[in-house]
């Protein structure tokens, strides 16, 4: 049963956090060179502009120098129109980001929940669809954290499904994103994992795996601007695509969902 009549990709508000100068030292699985801070800032501005053009009011939080990955504000929290849930990021260097976002959320949401001090969940491992909230187990999200989050979600009237993110993928949403009520965009590895048995899948083009972290916002799909073949696939399927540059954030294993909390 759907928990709301409002489409889960309909967003009026978003929170982002400006990249800190330390962002160039952000975590990455494979070092393809440090991103340039100026280029990171430019990508962040383009992202804010794309959200704004899609009809979202964007609140920009100041940078946190002590937390190089804090521009990826999706990871320490999960938000819905009616409530916010503070999470516990699974990377030790990111755990303290939660305390920095908590007051911001408490001031904006009518209801606020906290993951108990056991287990870990990164927001990048959560895919919200109209019928359920998928929680992907990963190197950052463990069973204890996922179970605790599922129980908070149940208290808010939402069904959760805990799934296993295929190995070698940072977050569940690194390799998939919601396009509409019936469709996800996914890499072949994610499609083959068979996690979304009741959803149609549009595959990203081979060699464009990073395109899978796209972001459906209101009437458009934000997609990394370098991913021309995936863009054609989405346009052929009838989606209105807006390209956003993500080359530098890609060096930090991040993409388009990671840079905002949306409701
Ligand atoms: C990290 O490894 O935590 C950051 N460098 C990238 C976080 C990406 N966030 C996301 O996919 N939600």
Automatic annotation (TrEMBL):
Keywords: Hydrolase
GO biological process: arginine metabolic process; citrulline metabolic process; positive regulation of nitric oxide biosynthetic process
A molecular function (GO) term: dimethylargininase activity
Coiled coil: none
Active site: 171, 258
Repeat listed as a keyword: no
Pfam family membership, one: ADI
Binding, substrate: 27, 69, 74-75, 94, 140, 252
Family named by the database record: Belongs to the DDAH family.
Protein name, as recorded: Arginine deiminase family protein
Species per Swiss-Prot/TrEMBL record: Microbaculum marinum
Lineage, broadest ranks: Bacteria, Pseudomonadati, Pseudomonadota, Alphaproteobacteria, Hyphomicrobiales
